[in-house]
Design a protein that fits this description.
This protein has one domain. 43% of the residues lie in helices and 6% in strands. It has six helices and four strands. α1 packs across α3 and α1 packs antiparallel against α5. The radius of gyration is 15 Å and the shape is globular. The structure holds iron/sulfur cluster.
Length: 158
């Protein structure tokens, strides 16, 4: 039986299969690695300014496919959390007290390609369109229903 996600309840349907998670993690990590390689060629880099994490300032919230949400949720669980608490200032719930991303290694695709000027601005779609398509294909394969805003997407699979 193929394991799927019920996006309304946030629960798995079907038998629990850890190997499915492993495959998802490997696929998403592979996409992130490919992206990092392309960004390195552009001499574009995240400076950990974290302005893009302050949703209350930017009015922009990254959207995640299901595979990205599963990887991000893994990072959340690794830090000992079982739920996302809203940030007191309206920033990303994963922005830590010291102003750093608490799941940096597992941060979503949008956090790697965002509009941050310090990091070099928006990555042109033509450079990453195929990677986005791979994330969307994985979302469909897993039974996801398309991209969702970061807090909702991660909370649904924690
Ligand atoms: S996941 Fe991390 S990098 Fe992305 S918006 Fe949240 S704190 Fe910032």
């Amino acid at each position: 039986m193929r394991e799927e996600w019920n996006m309304k309840s946030g629960k798995r349907s079907g038998k629990k299969r850890p190997e499915v998670d492993r495959e998802v993690f490997e696929e998403v990590e592979g996409i992130y690695a490919e992206l990092e390689g392309r960004l390195a060629g552009l001499e574009r880099d995240c400076r950990v300014v974290t302005r893009c994490c302050r949703f209350q300032l930017t009015g922009e919230v990254p959207v995640l496919t299901l595979g990205e949400a599963l990887v991000a949720a893994r990072g959340v669980r690794a830090s000992g959390r079982r739920e996302l608490k809203p940030h007191p200032e309206g920033a990303c719930p994963l922005l830590g007290k010291e102003g750093r991303c608490t799941i940096y290694r597992d941060r979503p695709f949008g956090c790697r390609t965002h509009f941050c000027r310090a990091a070099g601005g928006v990555v042109p779609r033509k450079l990453v369109g195929d990677l986005i398509q791979r994330l969307e294909a994985l979302d469909e394969k897993l039974g996801g229903d398309g991209s969702r805003g970061l807090p909702e997407a991660i909370a649904a699979v924690l």
